[in-house]
Amino acid sequence: MTIRTLSSRDVYRNQWMTVREDSIQRQDGSTGIYGVVLKPDFSIVIPHEQGEFYLVEQYRYPVQGRYLEFPMGSWETQADASPETVAAGELKEETGLVAGRMTYLGHLFIAYGYSNQGMHVFLAEELTPGPQTLAPEESDLVCKKVPIPEFEALVQGGHIKDSATLSAYCLLRMQRRIPGL
Fold first, then answer.
1. pTM
2. Of 56, 45, 58, nearest to 127 (Cα)?
3. For residues 3 and 34, what is the distance between their CA atoms, to the nearest angstrom?
């Protein structure tokens, strides 16, 4: 290990996250501090049907803008829920879709330079439509069906900027789960 924790203290906490400040000692013996954001893992779902993805668009307060992304979320009040259960729940909540088949693609970290949060990536197929059940924080969320070539054009045009969405898509492409992708 190249960094040793000397002490830790929580400097902020709410129901979604904790910010911790650690006093550390580096491999060379020098000391410093390290800020760590602790957040639960979340699930991200790639809803795919006949060469098209379902995306959601909502206002993201920290960046003061609306962007397209794959459905995703975590259940802070049900921390023991399995990643697949969370994925299915978020898919239904945000899009109204129910997947007949969910394929686990893998686990990735969001920004391990400052946070422990990771994401579980799922491909959702054999989709059945239904009503959305949006949370109050998602009242402005809209669902859009986008052909894969348009998805890639939206990424290149700067309309899809979410790193979780882009890394999930990269994982999907690398695993070649969709013919022709």
1. 0.92
2. 45
3. 10
